[in-house]
Give the backbone structure.
Amino acid sequence: MGILEQLISAASQGVKVRSQQVPLADLQARLGQRDHDRPFQEALTRPGMSLICEYKRKSPSAGEIAPGVELPEQVKAYEAGGAAALSVLTDETHFDGRLEDLGAARAVCGLPILRKDFVVDEYQLYEAAVGGADAVLLIAAVLDDDRLRDFQLKATELDLDCLVEIHDEEELDRAVESGAEVIGINNRNLDTGVVDIQTTYELITDVPTGTTVVSESGISNREELIELERVGVDAALIGESLMRSDNPEEMVRTLAGMSDNTTEHFLP
């Protein structure tokens, strides 16, 4: 079984267990308790390159990333540095994430929050909405056409934005056909684990005008962000390099070009 199949299998098993512990009806009853939403897509489309800064404890490829780095301090540093949004891993089996991390992040910062997980069931959309997320990741490689479309429709009903992640031309076509408004181009090959930022440059030329584009994985310096913005990328999702940084606030500020007077998208 390949790594993606393992991730999908673990996600499916996790949903089965959690839905027995907390029935869907209980989540639906709690929807009215949500506080005001924080528009995720809007945060990515302001002038300049927006940064989605990620909190993750470990990954299948990197192992444990930043022992001792606690979520409250890290996400507050991201916000202080000028992040436009947060990405929070909630996959427990392979990334040591927790659903509770969404609420913990929401409690200490005002940024919109993306729930990053392997969404395989509508139940997870309700979990995201109740748990404190403003958006969810939908991976084209994980979902068939019907679920990719239906999950976006359900997310809209729940006041959640969607980041539809693609890795190649076929998945891009499927994402566009599904009506995706925010498309994330993952520079990591899910089969080999190899990261190549050229993937974004190759695929963005076929993204329809008006679509919000996010480049994911393998981005670690300001020069790369400048080039990505030049070709039309609206936002970049950055995680591991920030998690390993001794000063994440300053790193976000540097990546965002705060010293270059390119801060329009951070203004209220």
